[in-house]
Amino acid sequence: MSVKRLFAGTAALAFLVACSEPDLILPGERLDYRDGMAGAAEAQVNSERKIALPKARANADWETIGGVATHNLGQVALGAAPQLAFAVDLGEGESRRARITASPVVSGGVVVAMDARARVTAMTTTGDVLWAKTVGPRNSDDLNSASGGLLTASGGRVYVATPYGALVALDRNTGAEIWTQDLGAPASAAPTVDGNLLYVVGGDGRGWAIEAETGRVRWNVIGTPPSLNSASGSAVAIADGLAIFPMPSGDLIAAFKSGGLQRWSSVIAGARLGNAAASRISDIPGGPVVNGDTLYVGNVSGRVAALALATGERLWTAREGAESALWYAGGSLFFVNDLNQLVRMDAANGEVIWRQALPGFIEPRFGLPNTRHASYGPVLAGGRLIVASSDGALRQFDPVSGALVGQVELPGGAASEPIVAGGVLYVVSKTGQLLAFR
Prior knowledge:
Blueprint: H1 3-19, E1 84-89, E2 105-107, E3 110-114, E4 119-124, E5 129-134, H2 140-143, E6 150-154, E7 157-161, E8 166-171, E9 177-182, E10 187-194, E11 197-202, E12 206-211, E13 217-222, E14 234-235, E15 237-239, E16 242-246, E17 251-256, E18 262-267, H3 276-279, E19 289-291, E20 294-298, E21 304-308, E22 314-318, E23 327-329, E24 332-336, E25 341-346, E26 352-357, E27 361-362, E28 371-372, E29 375-381, E30 384-389, E31 393-397, E32 404-409, E33 419-421, E34 424-428, E35 433-437
């Protein structure tokens, strides 16, 4: 017998002997490997808890993210069965290289929206275009080097935070440029106007207070530079003499409006186990929401928290991410979480009352990669929670139970948060159109 055959036979015998040994079973409780992770089955049992909704507000304007500087509108007025009233082309839609990140705004009877390449369009509330202007580099190659941007309107002006690191003030009625301020980095939060100052956050982790009239810098605060953010469209909150800056790193800095002295700071940190994609993103979408002496805030990766407005003291923390702005009403928080679920949470303690699944992934076909549907909102309007989704539907949910109570086709699919002003709902589509529903 050859040496090779002898060695092979000996190895095979050793393998069989090893396989015949009994398995070693370690003591301890057995848990599914997904327990506590993003793909785990939820133990949540939905409940229909009564809610005292605030009276619907007949708001004529929606000038910034969240509608007002506290990001707390309660409930806005909207008809029972909104239908598409008109659509206006804004310019370039979304693509692999360009994103729409600006929600539309309404101020003084003028609706302003933005395409994926910093083209700003102003129109009447009936869809007649007043002016259109590209706010960015004059060189066409530079113009295609970035996408997105954020909008605010107030006092007869439109403020545009461009993806090229500039903050630009335009005349609301003509589109004429009034001033430009270099921020040194693209904005990660839309400007919030309060009195004669506007407050904005740069993608490099700096917060600015800028004179609305002249564009001069009054003061700034510095947070931790982010490692990765998602241009989620946040905004500074203003309340009780404080400006609360949501930094892209997850820092939350409260500074006195009068001079920029820091009052307190906190970090909204933490991620959902098993959700590798979101865990690297620390953005605070929509910005903080202020109700009385409490501030509510959530990050993309997996935390929602309540803090004392005056001190920043943490009141509670919930293990839910927030991919949309938080909406406060009647002692509850409503938001789209990091698992693409519409969630109702008890604002007193962070307990989840119900969760409703929203459209998830598009099945891959013809060798194309997975595509995830995005959901924007909710807005509490006309007694219903309204969510705009990129799958082409405007869905309406019961705030008590979370049940789907209505659905309207949304041509092109949503690319922005929905807003409501003057009894009309506006949203920007992925194809680069402003859609109005009334």
